[in-house]
Amino acid sequence: MKPQTHIRGLAGVVLAGFLFSFDVNSQCSISTNLVPNGTFESGNSNFTSSYGYNPGNLYPEGKYDVVSNPTADHAAFATCGDKTSGSGKMMVVNGAPTANVSVWCSTISTTANSDYVFSTYVASVHASSPAILQFSINGVSLGSPFNASGTTCNWQQFCQTWNSGASTSANICIVNQNTAASGNDFALDDIKMGIVAPLYVEMLGFYIKQINGQTQLHWATVTEIDHDYFSVERSSDMSSWESISVIEGKGNKENLTIYDYTDIAPLMGKSYYRLKMVDIHGIEEFSAVRVAKALGDGEKYKIYPNPTFSSVNLLTDENVEQVELVNAMGSTIYSKKVEVMQPDLAFDFSGVSQGIYMIRLMNKGQVVYTDRLIKK
Ligand SMILES: [Ca+2]
Ligand SMILES: [Ca+2]
């Protein structure tokens, strides 16, 4: 589905230095679910199917049942918990090799000219030929077909947006598009449809700046609705994220708020940052991802903080054998051998008098880098 973005309030607001980005996603989020018994907890009711209801026996193709354990209806089906609670009911289907057959349909009232999200969870109950399903509304296919996981009992959510146009009712269906004869056996649960959840945070920018080995994060919001908090998240690989700070949101407001956070100890190499925004209803959205490199492009050595009151850190991927401090008279007043090279080394200059020095990095008897260092 398309990312939901709003730029309301941008006009007239000038923030020098901000990289404007509006890529805030609200995937599959709906405000109020309109599908009755989408959880199947009421059993075989509130929906229709072109497949046959065959309670207790799913050996024939093209049949379904509403049960809490697929194995109960077919010995070769996996023992899966439902999506709703893990112990509730789900619709279990022995998919037949005929495309364009409606497996599940329901009719709901809709408001004209509104954006809706239609969403379902699907899990395979047999590993072969995972289900290929497609949404359809009022007889028109919606979006691309989607595939259930090849791993049994692995519930995955699929959703599509739909604009109601002039429609005041929607016959919503989940249609089989798989023509495989064997396998194609799956379960549906937690089917939902509703108006797209409103974006509760309108971001006006999110950028990062690197200063003295620290990463400063700056962002701004225009509107916040029921906003609870930001979680500042960091990752070294864009796949596993850790929350490094939680910053309270403003709740509800319609004016510009600027937020700042400083990561005083970024990861070695690259640090990726993103903001998770959570509203009071628990709905989550994510900002764009920004990346900070410990060393700038073409930069081999970084000494920070500078000026310093006590110690300095040396950040480098190069080999350094010795670090020296030279005073204005040209005398070496500090010299330390690097025993074990690490990408981030600390040197204690607390015993060094206030003044301006030259810090010198040596490797194989050669000076490889010099910088002016102010000791306070
Ligand atoms: Ca359920
Ligand atoms: Ca089948």
Task: Spell out the blueprint of helices and strands.
Elements: E1 52-53, E2 63-67, E3 90-94, E4 101-109, E5 115-124, E6 132-137, E7 140-147, E8 156-163, E9 169-176, E10 185-195, E11 201-211, E12 214-235, E13 242-263, E14 270-279, E15 284-286, E16 290-293, E17 301-304, E18 311-316, E19 322-326, E20 332-337, E21 344-348, E22 355-363, E23 366-375
Parallel strand pairs: 1-2
Antiparallel strand pairs: 2-3, 3-10, 4-9, 5-8, 5-10, 6-7, 6-9, 11-12, 12-13, 12-14, 14-15, 14-16, 17-18, 18-21, 19-20, 19-22, 22-23
The structure holds calcium ion (2 copies).
One calcium ion (CA) binds next to loops.
Bound molecules: calcium ion
Number of strands: 23
Provide the β-strand percentage band.
Answer: over 45%
Shape: elongated
Q: Return the CATH class of the largest domain.
A: Mainly Beta
Protein traits:
376 residues; mainly beta; Immunoglobulin-like; six-stranded mixed sheet; six-stranded antiparallel sheet; 50% strand; elongated; disordered N terminus; binds calcium ion
What does this structure look like?
With 376 residues, the protein is mainly beta. It folds into three domains: 52-195, Jelly Rolls, CATH 2.60.120; 201-293, Immunoglobulins (Immunoglobulin-like), CATH 2.60.40.10; 301-375, Immunoglobulin-like, CATH 2.60.40.10. 0% of the residues lie in helices and 50% in strands. It has strands at 52-53, 63-67, 90-94, 101-109, 115-124, 132-137, 140-147, 156-163, 169-176, 185-195, 201-211, 214-235, 242-263, 270-279, 284-286, 290-293, 301-304, 311-316, 322-326, 332-337, 344-348, 355-363, 366-375. The strands form five sheets. Strands 1-2-3-10-5-8 form a six-stranded mixed beta sheet, with no helix packed on it. Strands 11, 12, 13, 14, 15 and 16 form a six-stranded antiparallel beta sheet that branches. A four-stranded antiparallel beta sheet has the order 4-9-6-7, with no helix packed on it. A hairpin with a 2-residue loop joins strand 22 and strand 23. It is elongated, with a radius of gyration of 29 Å. Mean pLDDT is 87; it is low at 1-26. Residues 39-41, 82-84, 88-90, 189 line the site of one calcium ion.
